[in-house]
Prior knowledge:
The protein is α+β, with helices and mostly antiparallel strands. Helices cover 20% and strands 52% of the residues.
Amino acid sequence: MKISAVTxxxxxxxxxxxxxxxxxxxxxxAHVLIRIETDEGLSGVAEAMSRSMIYGESQASIVEAVRxxxxxxxxxxxx
Length: 79
């Protein structure tokens, strides 16, 4: 079995109530869904959170990292 595809899908879900913390206010969940598929039809998903005020990453930077670095590095490997 080999990894055949890695995709990153950004999505946004609004919070009913803003989330207040010392570094700022968050009004929505701006995350990225990561999907890994194999050549045998199996797939798995994970979620990456973008909290630029805490982690320094945005949705766009996470998507770009998956598309440019992590995806190509995983294609062809045995999961």
